[in-house]
Design brief:
The structure is a single chain. By secondary structure, the protein is of the alpha/beta class. It folds into two domains: 236 residues, Aspartate Aminotransferase, domain 2; 125 residues, Aspartate Aminotransferase, domain 1. 38% of the residues lie in helices and 14% in strands. It is built from 13 helices and 14 strands. It has an eight-stranded mixed sheet, sandwiched between helices. Strands 7-6-11 form a three-stranded antiparallel sheet, with no helix packed on it. Strands 10-12-14 form a three-stranded antiparallel sheet, covered by helices on one side. The longest helix has 24 residues. It is globular and about 70 Å long. The two termini are 32 Å apart. The structure holds pyridoxal-5'-phosphate (PLP). The site of pyridoxal-5'-phosphate has 14 residues, from helix 3 and helix 4.
């Protein structure tokens, strides 16, 4: 952090990562599904209540496994928000699936559950809610719709670790859920992820798909005498060094989350003033959701020019960001997906969203400095 430059993210290390990696190194345990992977699986199963947790290379890999597990066929439709990361859609497109983009809710940027039912056709196979910023989608309604129409639910819980909806952990509510441990998330291993298998009937095939389509996991447990090719799969499991790193993080996951929540609340309090001045609006956390402070974002007022705000912040050495380019307006999204209904909220809000620097341990002083800068900029920068 030279020149007083404030980065957007600063990956938190707990200090134990290298010890655990060294242990694996000295023991010669390098391939996947070693002792650290097992510990990570147990932690995830204990803290989410899922039936089976499986580490993957990434959340992307977890979603790709989900598409294989659901046996998505060419032409099958999958309902999802357009306001999301590319992997939500890409994982299903790889199997020939067609993403059907539905608009989002203004308060949470999450899939608008009130619009889902009208988007269902005889080809619909699954709904993929994305818990944006670690704030739960309206899962009760989504699960009821899925049940009524015999659809599967895959939660993109990439940002959702240790967050919950009505007391249930994000990622553990649908048939399947996927976490990300990418460097920019709350709990990290560089690249990394996990698939949470909540439907016990999918657990056995999930293991097979993750191990190149073989029953090697059962062989390792001594349940079969040899392992053979069972069905289409790939290599989705990370090596032990990644799991060793991740274990150091999972041990501290609650501490990391609590620390982030303190910083999140500090932003939230400081920004209340700007909301009353109608310069921006702050995120809304529904009563029944516990979030995990994955992200602090604001929605700039319509008369504020976001490009100018970003530019001025850069000038002040503050690295603020925006995302996502809605998938329905991207080249691949247009080619492989289709839109159901209007995308008014997605289109409008994706142009106004600004994400503020946030990491575990960001100093309150730095946050004050960021908010001071934003305050000055907002009163100057009009369209
Ligand atoms: C980060 C993220 C992903 C991708 O996670 P990887 O682990 O990098 O594959 C997918 N969906 C959402 C919503 C994300 O935020």
């Amino acid at each position: 952090m030279k020149n007083n430059f404030i980065p957007f993210n600063w990956p938190h290390m707990t200090g134990k990562e290298l010890d655990y990696i060294k242990e694996s190194y000295l023991k010669g345990r390098l391939a996947g599904d070693g002792p650290y992977t097992k510990r990570c699986h147990e932690w995830l199963e204990e803290h989410t209540g899922c039936n089976t947790a499986l580490l993957t290379h990434s959340c992307t890999a977890g979603l790709e496994m989900a598409a294989l597990l659901l046996d998505i066929q060419p032409g099958d439709e999958i309902i999802m928000p357009s306001y999301t990361f590319v992997s939500t859609a890409n994982a299903f497109v790889l199997r020939g699936g067609v993403p059907v983009f539905v608009d989002i809710r203004e308060e949470t940027m999450n899939l608008d559950e009130r619009l889902i039912e009208a988007a269902i056709t005889p080809k619909t196979r699954a709904i993929v809610p994305v818990h944006y910023a670690g704030v739960g989608c309206e899962m009760d309604t989504i699960m009821q719709i899925a049940k009524r129409h015999d659809l599967k639910v895959v939660e993109d819980a990439a940002q959702g670790i240790l967050a919950s909806y009505k007391g249930r952990v994000l990622g553990s509510i649908g048939d399947l859920g996927a976490y990300s441990f990418h460097e920019t998330k709350n709990v990290i291993s560089g690249e990394g992820g996990a698939l949470l298998v909540n439907d016990p009937e999918l657990a056995h095939r999930a293991e097979i798909i993750r191990e190149k389509g073989t029953d090697r996991s059962r062989f390792f447990r001594g349940e079969v005498e040899k392992y053979t090719w069972q069905e289409v799969g790939s290599s989705f499991l990370p090596g032990e060094l990644i799991a060793a790193f991740l274990w150091a993080q999972l041990e501290n996951a609650q501490t990391i989350t609590d620390g982030r929540l303190v910083s999140w609340k500090h932003y939230h309090e400081l920004l209340a003033f700007f909301e009353t001045r109608e310069l921006l609006s702050r995120p809304v956390i529904p009563e029944h959701c516990h979030h995990n402070a994955h992200m602090y974002y604001v929605l700039l007022a319509p008369h504020i020019d976001r490009e100018k705000v970003l530019l001025e912040l850069k000038r002040k050495k503050i690295n603020s960001l925006f995302h996502y380019v809605p998938l329905h307006s991207s080249p691949a999204g247009k080619r492989y997906g289709r839109v159901h209904g209007t995308m008014v909220v997605t289109n409008r809000l994706s142009e106004r969203l600004l994400r503020l620097p946030l990491w575990f341990g960001i100093e309150a002083e730095k946050q004050n400095q960021i908010i001071d800068s934003i305050g000055g900029i907002l009163t100057r920068v009009k369209r």
